[in-house]
Specification:
There is one protein chain. By secondary structure, the protein is mainly alpha-helical. The protein is 38% helix and 6% strand. The protein contains 7 helices and 2 strands, in the order E-E-H-H-H-H-H-H-H. It has helices at residues 28-32, 41-49, 79-91, 114-129, 137-145, 150-154, 168-177; strands at residues 5-9, 15-19. It has a two-stranded antiparallel sheet. Residues 52-117 are annotated as: Disordered. InterPro entries: WD_repeat_GAD-1. Residues 86-101 have a biased composition (Basic and acidic residues).
């Protein structure tokens, strides 16, 4: 067998691979046999300056006496300050990414109101026609149909053209009767 290895997962989240380097030829040995990348000078310098067992800097740098222009927002540890900052951010439409509410009237500023004006035009036209209380419905329908014939306009100027002397059915009947 090529794979003489045991993979162990412990309850504390540690995974281990147990193998015999003389008997095993594949599996975990494929990744361990690769040559480590050579480190560049900068990474060697940073590793030598960092404390033993650390990754250099582990978190944000706290500067309590920084100038206001260089101070980052949210660096205060007080919960009431964070709460006030959240409320300010909530009221700011850009930070809270609130969509722009529908505008009333003509828009001013950088945005075009062309679509809004067209929409208002259509809505105003339909609202005027909706006031039908106290009207006779038959008269309203006749108002649309008087003097309008959409079908006759489609066939205007057409002449009846005879494509064949007989239809296919007539020819079949004629053949059967012979």
């Amino acid at each position: 067998p090529r794979l003489n290895q045991i993979f162990v997962g412990a309850s504390d989240g540690v995974n281990r691979i147990l193998y015999d380097p003389e008997l095993s030829t594949k599996g975990a040995l494929l990744s361990t046999s690769k040559i480590a990348r050579p480190k560049d000078d900068l990474s060697i310098l940073l590793a030598s300056r960092a404390p033993q067992g650390s990754a250099g800097i582990t978190g944000p740098i706290l500067t309590p006496h920084a100038l206001p222009m260089f101070r980052e927002d949210g660096t205060s540890s007080s919960t009431s300050t964070k709460k006030r900052q959240r409320e300010k951010d909530r009221s700011d439409p850009i930070k809270s990414k609130r969509p722009e509410p529908p505008a009333r009237g003509i828009k001013q500023g950088g945005q075009s109101g062309a679509g809004l004006n067209f929409t208002q035009f259509v809505v105003d036209g339909t609202i005027k026609n909706k006031n039908i209380a106290g009207r006779d419905p038959r008269e309203e329908l006749f108002k649309y149909s008087e003097g309008k014939s959409y079908v006759s306009k489609a066939y205007e100027g057409d002449e009846e053209v005879v494509l064949a002397e007989k239809t296919a059915e007539e020819e079949e009947d004629e053949m059967k009767s012979r």
